[in-house]
Design brief:
single chain, mainly beta, Immunoglobulin-like, Jelly Rolls, 7-stranded mixed sheet, 6-stranded antiparallel sheet, 20 strands, about 10% helix, elongated
């Protein structure tokens, strides 16, 4: 009988332990779910002004009585640029919620006063602190092909179709994103996909070389640009053609030298950063990948010319987009 009782007790114990494990609750505590929100320490920045050009940063902190969903939105009072942080926690730590001057929503920040605003899901109150940008962050590039700040380089070659309302001009207005100028590309061409193009020859950047001064390693070269999608127009395509002068004779031969092509379908509204590693760019014909006609090796240091084409479906009417800050970097561009 004792043995039977021991066995029964053993299995009963296992059953109780099993039930306890199954009834364990994961997730917010009852206190977190039903207690009213309280700010335990005020929302603050660890400095009221920052010089991003020196690599300095600013951190934000706050603590709450329970786990909450929070968002910090930093807005430039002049530029209207925005940087956003978000999370779900009982605290915001200045050691991890760090702003280095980058942007979430373009344009880029300027030398200006900013307001950092903290909002909490389900809480009507907002909390804010001022931060002044003394200098903007330094953008590290390997080579800037075009930022349009000094107008149209006479070494560039521009071609614009004779369509309707053609506009292939550098502009400085409220649409600016980096610096004060950008290239506007717009028009209606009902007989061809090409609206216009710009050629950027390597000789525009060096009088002593026929190719761009870039790293020979295609995995260490990134191509970047800012593209603006204009609403209520035919979708634009921006096609970049990278023409490698493999024999360094100053002339690109399409029959036996590599051309790599990067097509951007502008399916968004507003400014967007586009960045791609050079080794990931393929050769294209009519939008389809093909084998390049040269040595089939990505050689960014042998690029002799970059052609930028603005394309759109000729049957769909007017198309428009804007472009700025065409550049190469050694890592993906962070703005």
């Amino acid at each position: 009988m004792k043995k039977i009782l021991i066995v029964i007790s053993f299995f009963l114990g296992l059953t109780i332990l099993s039930c306890r494990k199954e009834n364990t609750i994961d997730g917010p505590s009852i206190e977190d779910l039903y207690s009213s929100f309280k700010m335990l320490s005020t929302f603050k920045a660890n400095k009221d002004s920052v010089d991003f050009s020196t690599g300095a940063t600013v951190g934000f902190s706050a603590t709450f009585n329970k786990i909450v969903s929070w968002k910090i939105t930093i807005t430039g009072t002049t530029s209207k640029a925005k940087k956003v942080f978000s999370g779900q926690s009982k605290s915001i730590d200045a050691a991890t919620t760090i702003w280095n001057g980058t942007t979430t929503y373009f344009p880029l920040f300027a030398v200006e006063n900013c307001i950092a605003k903290l909002t909490i899901d389900g809480v009507t109150d907002t909390f804010q602190v001022p931060v002044k940008i003394k200098n903007t962050r330094t953008i590290n590039t390997s080579l800037v092909i075009a930022d349009f700040e000094s107008g149209f380089n006479p070494a560039w070659v521009k071609f614009v179709q004779t369509g309707a309302n053609m506009d292939f001009n550098i502009k400085s207005d409220t649409s600016k994103v980096q610096g004060n100028s950008y290239l506007n590309m717009a028009g209606t061409v009902n007989w061809d996909w090409l609206i216009g193009l710009v050629d950027f020859p390597a000789t525009a950047y060096s009088t002593s070389a026929n190719t761009l001064n870039l790293n020979a390693n295609p995995d260490a070269v990134y191509f970047n640009c800012l593209v603006y999608g204009v609403p209520n127009t035919n979708m634009s395509k921006v096609l970049f053609q990278f023409k490698e002068d493999e024999n360094a004779d100053g002339v690109f031969n399409a029959n036996n030298e590599d051309e790599y092509d990067y097509n951007i379908d502008v399916t968004w509204t507003g400014w967007k950063l586009v960045s791609i590693k050079y080794s990931d760019i393929t050769a294209l014909v009519n939008g389809q990948p093909v084998t390049p006609k040269g040595n089939s090796i990505h050689n960014p240091n042998k690029i002799g010319k970059i052609s930028m084409l603005h394309l759109a479906d000729k049957a769909l009417g007017a198309a428009a987009c804007k472009i700025d800050f065409i550049c190469f970097t050694s890592t993906p561009l962070e703005l």
